Amino acid sequence: MNKTLLTKLAILAAVTLILIIVLNQIGGLVRERQARQQEAAQSVEQSQAGPQTLLGPLLTRSCRENWAVKDGLQRRAFTVVLPPSQLQVSGRVTPDPRYRGLFKINSYAGKLSILARWDDFDRLTPPAENAGGRVDCGAVAAMFSTSDARGLRDVQLKRDGQALAVKPGTTNAAHAAGLHAVIALPRSGETLELNLTVDLIGTQRLAVIPAAGSTAVNLQSSWPHPSFGGRFLPAEREVGESGFSARWQVSELASNAAADVAAGKAGLDTLAVDLIDPVNPYVMSDRAIKYGLMFIALTFVTVGLTELLTGRRVHPVQYLLVGLALSLFFLLLLSLSEHLPFVVAYLIAAGAAALVLTQYAAAMLGTWLRGLAFGGGITLLYGALYVLLSREQTALVIGAVLLFAVLATVMTVTRRMDWYGISANRLSQAG
Fold first, then answer.
1. Sign of the alpha-carbon torsion through 333, 335, 338, 344
2. Nearest partner of 136 among 192, 78, 95, 190, judged by Cα
3. Which of 97-111, 239-253, 267-281, 292-306 has the highest mean pLDDT?
4. Which of 121, 307, 373, 381 lies 20 to 30 A from 178 at CA?
5. Is the bond preceding 57 in cis, omega lying within 30 degrees of 0?
6. Which residues are 215's β-sheet partners?
7. DSSP 189-217
8. How many Å apart are CA 237 and CA 220, to the nearest integer?
9. Rounded to an integer, what distance in angstroms lies between the CA atom of residue 13 and that of residue 153?
10. Closest CA to 324 of 20, 12, 31, 8
11. For the residues 234-263, what does the mean pLDDT come to?
12. How many Cα neighbours within 13 Å face the side chain of 11?
């Protein structure tokens, strides 16, 4: 291989390194914008309310046991927690997005109706654990806990149609944020039903802890892009452009939440729904940039083949300008996607880049026909990139097939090419 060709390859390697630096800088900008979006979400959570996790209603009772020992009297204080035998939660979650500058935060307002029923109250009168011990317990309280009490806008707790006086706090140290009301236990053989109506606000996520013998949750919303999470997926769900509806059914046979709450354990089971945006411009831009080097390499291969097949010499500066145009597409995509739907931003950015590269390639390669062919290839590349971005689960196989197809095309086109003859011809031209 002659010295001239080696020099050009070295220069193209340096050009590629410069473009890699440019892509890394654009990627850093994407990560910075992602961080600012997270800061905006934290700002909304701090000034309004964060993700909400609901627990209860539960019955609680503070008790104390006294027993005699050789040196005097010993005491221990403890709290008894009784989850309901049946818990039914139903309601509607209304999206209420908030904005911090350019950043949208998916907040919501929820109106929930909660019915809790107890059939057995023996656990609220615990036996002594020590010989000769005596257990004294205080009043029974019904508690309801939420992860961020600032989100409670209105709460009504009723028993047999009669409103109960609600006080802040739960009297439970493990789940302190919320409310409680002192109640009288029903007579022997009777059941207890409490109806709780809650108006609350939160950010993005709403979760319910299935702390009951049987838990049924029914939620509706106009948000068309839910993400169901937690330990239990809905038993039934319908998702459409007008919103979603979901129903969960969980028993104590499937979840330890009721037992864990009674034992004061952390890390409780939940069933949850997140109001997410299906297309996050920063995530999509970050994924697009990861394919940037492949774009540049494929374009350089195309230009190089055209240079070899037509004898039209292309200067390294022209390679650099083409690579910069390809790189700045990602910056244009990022900036436009902050103001427009991602697909619209992508079409504008790709169209602008393809138009600029088409007219530049026409001058670089000598004819408009070659320029149009080059622009058509760039357009196909942008189309393939959008398919890769929109098909996350199959992106790897699509990308692998695309690269293999390009390599097969290059090998087919150059299968009869005399590389030594080309090198000799270039050497004679240089001489």
1. negative
2. 78
3. 239-253
4. 121
5. yes
6. 87, 250
7. T--EEEEEEEEEEEESEEEE---SSEEEE
8. 10
9. 62
10. 20
11. 91
12. 13
The closest alpha carbon to 199, from 93, 87, 86, belongs to 93
Q: What domains lie within the chain, and their CATH numbers? A: 3-36+282-430 (no CATH), 51-278 (2.60.40)
pTM of the model: 0.78
Vertex 263, ends 260 and 269: CA angle to 5°?
15
Which of 53, 32, 27, 51 lies closest to 103, judged by CA?
32
Six-digit token string for 220: 């509706």
Angle, alpha carbons 226-230-232 (nearest 5°): 95
Residue 271: count of CB within 10 angstroms of its CB:
26
Report whether 170 contacts 144 (CB < 8 A): yes
3-state secondary structure (DSSP) of residue 171: coil
CA–CA gap between residue 324 and residue 321 (Å, rounded):
5
> How far apart, in whole angstroms, are the C-alpha atoms of residue 296 and residue 137?
75
The first and second tokens of residue 265, run together, are 């354990």
The separation between the first and the last C-alpha atoms of the chain, rounded to the nearest angstrom, is 15
Residue 218 CA to residue 246 CA, distance in Å, equals 6
Integer angstrom CA distances of residue 265 from 50, 143, 256, 285: 22, 17, 10, 42
Query: Would the CA dihedral through 290, 291, 297, 300 be positive or negative?
Result: negative
Rounded to a whole number of angstroms, the CA Rg of the chain reads 33
Measured CA to CA, the distance from residue 276 to residue 307 in angstroms comes to: 48
